[in-house]
Automatic annotation (TrEMBL):
Organism: Pseudobacter ginsenosidimutans
Name of the protein described by the UniProt record: Uncharacterized protein DUF1080
Signal peptide as annotated in the record: 1-21
Molecular function, one GO term: hydrolase activity
Organismal lineage: Bacteria, Pseudomonadati, Bacteroidota, Chitinophagia, Chitinophagales
Record's keyword terms, sorted: Signal
Length: 245
């Protein structure tokens, strides 16, 4: 009886170890599961390089954006005195209807963001002139977070995220942006925080009450690129993936 009991315990332990190993493997960062591949997901960050990304309008060599240990991050200290090496990191590909996912964390007192539908053209000095933004910020440390529409998870300067569920600076958060035939949803840490419809009358009213009212090309085009913002602060990204809809 004792031998049977010990054998059973050994089998349980073996199964538990095997199960844990399998779970860890399936959640490896910067990879796609078999189910995700079947569902049409694409990696936008391979975990080892900046392939698929470049600096907006190729203004610098982007050397301040670095990749280490499976993480893409901006190192402000690596920029030159005139911003050499920095700049907004923009995707090579454009998307119209999509589901974007990304993990991020921000430095203490830091500010950044993820833009979408951005247009790249020499006539535009910055991506925000055309691309709406899901805000990334240290809610507890950055002065701009005092603005109720400039906090983490907000559709920047347009709609406040509800509920407010960002984790503190230095901790990983997850963001999702879903755009499907004008229906826009922002998800932060697994919870819907913004839902709206782009390009209708209510959307125009939102813009009219925002800082973007004087930008003639803001959010006008229905296909564009993703942008990781260089706001001068250290920010980290991983698990960037997209599913065209």
């Amino acid at each position: 009886m004792l031998n049977r009991f010990c054998s059973a315990l050994a089998l349980i332990a073996l199964c538990s170890c095997h199960s844990g190993h399998q779970s860890s493997a399936s959640s490896s960062p910067n990879t796609l599961s078999s189910a995700e591949k079947r569902d049409g997901w694409q990696l936008l960050f391979d975990g080892t390089s900046k392939s698929g990304w470049h600096i907006f309008n190729n203004r610098t060599d982007g050397s301040a954006w670095k990749v280490e240990e499976g993480v893409l991050y901006l190192d402000p200290k690596a920029k030159g005195p005139k911003g050499e090496g920095g700049g907004e990191l923009i995707s090579d590909k454009s998307f119209s209807n999509f589901h974007l996912k990304a993990d991020w964390k921000i430095d203490i007192n830091g500010n950044s963001g993820i833009m979408f539908l951005a247009q790249e053209d020499p006539q535009y000095k910055y991506a925000y002139l055309t691309g709406p933004e899901m805000q990334i910020i240290d809610n507890n440390g950055h002065a701009d977070a005092k603005n109720i529409k400039h906090r983490s998870g907000d559709l920047y300067d347009l709609i406040t995220a509800v509920p407010e569920n960002a984790k503190p600076a230095g901790e990983w958060n997850s963001s999702e942006i879903i755009l499907d035939n004008g229906k826009l949803t922002l998800i932060q840490n697994g919870t819907k925080v913004v839902t709206t419809t782009m390009w209708n009358e209510q959307w125009q009213e939102l813009i009219a009450k925002s800082k973007f009212v004087k930008l003639p090309d803001f959010a006008k085009v229905r296909e564009g690129r993703f942008v990781l913002q260089d706001h001068g602060d250290k920010v980290w990204f991983r698990n960037i993936k997209v599913k065209p809809l």
